[in-house]
Design a protein that fits this description.
Number of strands: 12
Mean pLDDT: 93
Oligomer: single chain
Shape: globular
Helix content: 25-40%
């Protein structure tokens, strides 16, 4: 049953692992910068802390004075039990010595929209918003009609979500470009320039982005689509490994033309 959560990667089996590339050469970052991009957290605070510790240890082991960044690819809330605590943790800042970039995921946008309009409640609730409500101590009365339930839940959430959390949600970036990489939650539309992408695609796209088979202007580093392991294609690196279900939260490390992967264990955290 768990296998149905994952997108299969037949392309890799058929043609071997392609190298993420731009203009016919391996993608690279400017010298002196090391970037770690973290996949979808979905309310798993223990896994996030574990992966940040792994990233810190990896950075120390590599040494050489590189400036380290952590880019969080969004979907901090929903499905897992610790949505509120994950936001508290991210607001407190990245590990010492790291620069942090926080991108917007579709689930983070759902929460933000629900705080403004209860009409977003039913779809959000069915896709993991129920866990986020509980993390803020909000329970719905099943005896009431759906519109009333969600109106009451929205009122309760507006009272319980701290202003600092609302500012954090409102500050999330849609994308982050550095060197030959563009980092975003879901992906892009391959037939549009980066500066002409729309918000819906950046947060929700799957096809035709995932199966695109040639280079783009930049290699896209993304989450959103769950795969059994991080996936490399010429045009993208996908690092959502379904942490909320598998216990495996993944990150890609990037430095000049090198890349490597870090993960939590598949056990519970």
């Amino acid at each position: 049953m768990l296998g149905r959560l994952f997108r299969k990667s037949r392309e890799r089996e058929e043609v071997g692992p392609p190298v993420p590339s731009v203009a016919g050469r391996p993608a690279r970052l400017p010298r002196g910068i090391r970037v770690y991009a973290v996949g979808d957290v979905h309310g798993r605070l223990g896994l996030l802390r574990q992966l940040e510790a792994i990233i810190e240890a990896d950075h120390r082991a590599r040494g050489d004075g590189c400036r380290p960044w952590i880019v969080y690819l969004g979907d901090y809330v929903d499905r897992g039990t610790d949505s509120r605590e994950v936001i508290d943790h991210l607001i407190a800042g990245p590990p010492d010595g790291f620069e942090g970039i926080h991108l917007l995921g579709n689930h983070d946008l759902w929460l933000r929209e629900f705080l403004e309009d209860p009409a977003y409640g039913p779809s959000w609730y069915k896709h993991g918003g129920d866990a986020t409500l509980l993390s803020y101590g909000v329970r719905m009365d099943p005896a009431k009609a759906e519109p009333a339930r969600f109106r009451e839940a929205q009122v309760a959430m507006r009272a319980r979500v701290p202003e600092a959390h609302r500012r954090f949600l409102g500050s999330l970036e849609l994308g982050f470009s550095i060197g030959d990489y563009f980092m975003v939650h879901a992906g892009i539309m391959p037939n549009r320039p980066l500066d002409q992408q729309n918000v819906e695609d950046l947060l929700w796209v799957r096809e035709p982005f995932l199966s695109h088979d040639s280079e783009l202007a930049k290699v896209v580093v993304h989450g959103h689509t769950v795969e059994q392991q991080p996936v490399e294609r010429r045009h993208r690196i996908g690092i959502d490994t379904g942490a909320v279900w598998t216990g495996m939260l993944s990150a890609v490390g990037l430095e000049e033309d090198r890349r490597w992967y870090l993960q939590t264990s598949t056990g519970e955290a």
